[in-house]
Specification:
alpha/beta, Rossmann fold, 8-stranded mixed beta sheet, 3-stranded mixed beta sheet, 10 helices, globular
Length: 244
């Protein structure tokens, strides 16, 4: 008999795998091999982490989650489901290691960000770490999922050496609603400069990044525009070096 927390977690991971993030997880599944090291950056409630841990075992799944209550919950759930290859890091991934303010919107944990939102929030101080500082030179990472509510460019800027060395598959949320459109394009350019080519997900299909038009695919019409089926904010980047 599993408890309520574990039952909710199971529903969440199944819904993510077979409905909400079917395309993203399908691409990760094709790429990850047993024994790999993978990173879940902005692990939140673990809907990606469960699958990353299973597919990479007996390798290592590193979950970065700076919200203390969510990090504790992830640790409990990993024990409950015997995900022994998971390391939960209670730090935010950033361009540099140190401390920063994390802003948690009132009543909306998934929206926590290092960028201050306009809506009411609860600020807390958190430890930050860059991936280049965290990952030793002999640690090869095959895949990264990044969902950090607008701070993607900072995460990637602190991981340039790791990306050059490991060429991981990157599943990335990137959204003009959370960052500026300039920051979105800077993020794409950074990855292009490192030899990555991108795709975006539209209604479950992967389309080339060259077809992405923010005025069409991230339109801001209506009160809940980001919930539209045609709103596209999830991207997949592959390194040409890894495919060679």
């Amino acid at each position: 008999m599993i408890d309520r927390e574990a039952a909710r977690f199971l529903v969440r991971v199944i819904r993510s795998r077979y409905r909400d993030h079917r395309t993203e997880l399908r691409e990760l599944r094709r790429h990850i091999r047993p024994g790999d090291v993978v990173c879940d950056i902005g692990a939140n409630k673990g809907s990606f982490l469960y699958w990353l841990a299973r597919w990479s075992a007996p390798g290592r799944a590193i979950a970065f989650e700076p919200q203390p209550d969510l990090a504790e919950q992830l640790s409990r759930l990993c024990t409950t489901f015997s995900l022994d290859n998971v390391v939960v890091e209670r730090r935010a991934v950033d361009a540099a290691s140190g401390t920063r303010t994390l802003f948690i919107p009132d009543g909306h944990q998934p929206g926590a960000s290092l960028l201050e939102p306009a809506e009411p929030n609860r600020p807390i101080e958190v430890q930050t770490i860059s991936l280049d500082d965290y990952l030793p030179a002999d640690r090869n990472v095959s895949a990264m999922k990044i969902d950090v509510e607008g701070a993607e460019l900072d995460v990637l800027s602190g991981a340039v050496n790791t990306l050059r060395r490991c060429h991981p598959l990157i599943v990335l949320e990137c959204d003009r609603r959370l960052a500026t459109l300039d920051k979105v394009y800077e993020t794409f350019e950074l990855l292009r400069g490192l030899g990555y080519s991108g795709s975006f997900i539209h209604r479950g299909r992967l389309l080339p990044l060259s077809s992405f038009d923010p005025e069409r695919h991230q339109r801001t019409d209506g009160e809940w525009f980001w919930k539209s089926k045609d709103y596209c904010n999830n991207f997949i980047f592959r390194s040409s070096a890894a495919q060679a």
